[in-house]
Amino acid sequence: MGQIRLEQVTKSFGEVQVIQPLDLTLEDGEFTVFVGPSGCGKSTLLRLIAGLEDVSSGRILIDGKDATALVPAKRGLAMVFQSYALYPHMSVRRNIAFPLRMARMSRAEIDRRVEEAAEVLNLREYLDRRPGQLSGGQRQRVAIGRAIVREPAAFLFDEPLSNLDAALRVGMRMEISELHKKLGTTMIYVTHDQVEAMTMADRIVVLQGGIIEQVGSPLELYQRPCNQFVAGFIGSPRMNLIEGPEAAREGATTLGIRPEHLRLSRSEGPWEGTVGVSEHLGSDTFLHIHGIPGCDPFTVRASGEVDLRHGDAVFLTPDRARLHRFDAEGRRIE
Amino acid sequence: MATKASRSAARLMMAPAVVLLLGWMLVPLSMTVWFSFRKFLPLRGGDLGWAGWENYSRFVSSSSFWPAVSTTLIIVGSVLVVTVVLGVLLALLLDQPFWGRGIVRILVIAPFFVMPTVSALVWKNMFMDPTNGLLAYLWRLFGAEPLAWLSEASKESIVMIIAWRWLPFATLILLTAIQSLDNEQLEAAEMDGAGPLQRFGHIILPHLGRAITIVILIQTIFLLSIFAEIFVTTGGAFGTRTLTYLIFQRVLESQNVGLGSAGGVYAIILANIVALFLMRIVGRNLDA
Amino acid sequence: MPRAIRTQRKLLTTAVAWFVGLLIFFPILWTFLTSFKTEAEAVANPPLFLNFDWTLENYAVVQERSDYLRFLWNSVFLAGGSTLLGILVGVPAAWSMAFVPSRRTKDILLWMLSTKMLPAVGVLYPIYLIFIRLGLLDTRVGLVVVLMLINLPIIVWMLYTYFREIPGEILEAARMDGANLRSELLYVLTPMALPGIASTVLLNFILAWNEAFWTLNLTAVDAAPLTAFIASYSSPEGLFFAKLSAASTMAIAPILILGWFSQKQLVRGLTFGAVK
């Protein structure tokens, strides 16, 4: 079991309130991602749940029991840190066994669980090495191994992939997702990378300035961002945000349209501009269009074979069903 | 960043060190301050009552006070000048590439590990002895009359003995500082047409500024309380009685505790003035 | 620069550096050599450099006459005891300041440093009096405590600078893994900081070994370490250079060897982390 409930939780460092009063329930078995720009309070929130920081007010309940005053060791949670935080003086085996030793488990049980974790994570051959002799991805696996042997109520991940190179990151992303499917344990994952959030999460919590902007499934956030911040944060490349008369005509202060929801034409369309830089990714081409009033540059996602050059004149037609309208405060207009 | 639990644990863990040092500082210090206001002669009647500021004025007006102050200043000042100037030169030399750098470094550092009583005695007897000392032999070799170092050139001799022990300290710290200088800076200066002297004056010396300040401050604190070197060589005679030694004599040799304590308070104030400067530098470093 | 000139310059530097190095080291070398001479050879004119009859006699005489080993044992006991005690008190304190810093941490660190700057002579009589009252005069226990206290600020400072280099996340990981404070210190921090702790031990052993104010003023016979043993040679009794040299060599040799291992840490320790 691993339901985590936050009730009116706040956190201040001195005068600065980094978490505004916040209510959130993370259901058992759910993979939740906290995402937001740096300094939004996502890591602090994770550390509050872990017990590495005290809440300034409010309550944290784990499986219905008040854990607000418990020390980290007593909360039954496991954490994977950004730097992996492996014990450099211990072998991989002893790293993974450490939480079990702390729990005074029997030798036989410890050995069994370490072997099992090593099997799951493909670490068998490395058990007697030191962390310093491992690659980044292997270290990451050891950190995860150390977390899973305890069979915790929930896993906490603090930007675990940010120290890996791009290729490894994609691989580890899959592994963590698969691990979640296999174990079915509650996972909370903090990242600033919206791609990680979209690909892994059951539910995403978007934070900014210590406030939850929106909670929802990846597709909900993509299709119906509840405000301009979420609209701009989720999705890559970013949503185009148009201001001025073009937006006013639709009855909004700001009009949003994603690059992939536009039709490109050489001859006709409501919006006219000229092609600037184009980024060819092979499968897609991202075109930066200049000269469209209210938004410059304007990004359009076109097919990989599109044959347009710098300076060509183009016309754009938005998919009207997928226009997002926001009011003066940035809130979504239905 | 931490929790209440870890903060209270931290206070608990810090307590022994803080309590011990607080006791070590406050108990003797308040006793010294107390004695300094008493007429206290342990061998001649013990505590003879309140003395007011008399000890303080007597300590300052005694005929040995000003000579002791000037001796202290001369010895400390000379050692500082010698060790810093030679230290910079030596550090520059040791920073150059040459064969056997590791060994020479060890040779240069060695004197710092020699215990003060040993260095004082070795210098006093084997080098400065007017008949059998090595220096006397050297003097005679060049046809000069050997010097009775510790009585005829007493301050110079003491400075030499102390500087020999502290030169390695200055060299080591300055060498570490030079080695932390970004080589590209020097190469850039060379590209800009700066000669060796200009490079030294405009880049190396300013870079060493902080290290030199630290060397001066730390040495001052240690040098102000130099004791063993004087204790085993001249015993404070021949104009080598420093403030520290004068206080030592008042307290333990003539057993005038009140007077000595007043002197002790002066010494503490003096040391604190120097310490204040050092702490500001170290403190600034803590923030970085 | 052409290669030949560079080599030439390096040769010159080598010659100058070795000359200066040997000059500075010479008093130690001379002491070492003299300790193997007879008293007559020690004061020979002109001085004998290597061409004398090497003898170990002085060492035997020094041990026999003044019981060198007893002073040596006292030195080891005082330096070792005070260092060990200082580490026991210093590790928890440094842990607190490095990993749970508060607004007052800096002030406490600087205040600790300031106690190191208290001139010993200013508190000589009170300590002397306290020692007499408590019966600690000329005891090893009393001196261990005093030496520990004068070096404690350096111990805390050095450990603090080493601990600060250990990422706090690792200690947090231990906490998440269920370690209590004792386990965190014992199984995670101490093994990781072992090189730093070792350097701290080394430097403080050296400082305590060479301490020559309290050891001279608070001991007589029973607890006297090598500093006092050497000081007792200051009253000359005829020709004694060779024996003085033998005694000196024995007093400084152990620490010279330790000192060479601790050069790097020396800078850090003695400048309170201000120069690394």
List keywords for this structure.
heterotrimer; B: 288 residues; mainly alpha; two-stranded antiparallel ribbon; 13 helices; C: 276 residues; MetI-like fold; 2 domains; 14 helices; 0% strand
How many beta strands in the DSSP annotation of chain B?
2
Number of helices of chain B: 13
User: Can you tell me the CATH architecture of the largest domain in chain C?
Assistant: Orthogonal Bundle
User: What's the main sheet of chain B like?
Assistant: 2 strands, antiparallel
N- and C-termini, Cα separation of chain B: 18 Å
Helix/sheet category of chain B = mainly alpha
**Total tally of structural domains of chain C:** 2
Q: Please give the radius of gyration of chain B in angstroms.
A: 24 Å
Number of helices of chain C: 14
- How many beta strands in the DSSP annotation of chain C? 0
Q: Which structural class fits the helix and strand makeup of chain C?
A: mainly alpha
Q: What is the averaged pLDDT score of chain B?
A: 83
Oligomer: heterotrimer
Level-1 CATH class name of the largest domain in chain C: Mainly Alpha
Taking all residues together, what is the mean pLDDT of chain C?
A: 84
Percent in strands of chain B: under 5%
Give the % helix of chain C.
over 70%
Overall, the morphology of chain B is flat
Helical content band of chain B = over 70%
- CATH topology heading of the largest domain in chain C: MetI-like fold
Structure characterization notes:
The complex is a heterotrimer of chains A (334), B (288) and C (276). With 334 residues, chain A is of the alpha+beta class. Chain A has helices at 42-50, 92-102, 107-120, 136-148, 166-183, 194-200, 218-223, 228-233, 245-249, and strands spanning 4-13, 16-26, 31-35, 57-62, 65-66, 77-80, 154-158, 186-191, 203-208, 211-216, 240-243, 254-257, 262-265, 271-280, 284-290, 298-303, 313-318, 324-326, 332-333. In chain A, the strands form 4 sheets. Chain A has a 6-stranded mixed sheet, sandwiched between helices. In chain A, helix 2 packs across helix 3 (107-120) and helix 2 (92-102) packs parallel to helix 4. The longest helix of chain A has 18 residues, at 166-183. The mean pLDDT of chain A is 90. By secondary structure, chain B is mainly alpha-helical. Chain B contains 13 helices and 2 strands, in the order H-E-E-H-H-H-H-H-H-H-H-H-H-H-H. Chain B has helices spanning 4-36, 54-61, 65-95, 101-109, 116-127, 134-141, 149-152, 154-179, 183-191, 196-224, 228-233, 243-253, 257-287; strands at 38-41, 46-50. In chain B, a hairpin with a 4-residue loop joins strand 1 (38-41) and strand 2. Chain C has helices at residues 3-34, 39-42, 57-66, 68-99, 105-116, 124-133, 140-163, 168-176, 181-192, 194-210, 214-217, 226-231, 241-261, 263-270. Chains in contact: A-B, A-C, B-C. The A-B interface holds A 13, 47, 51-54, 71 and B 1-5.
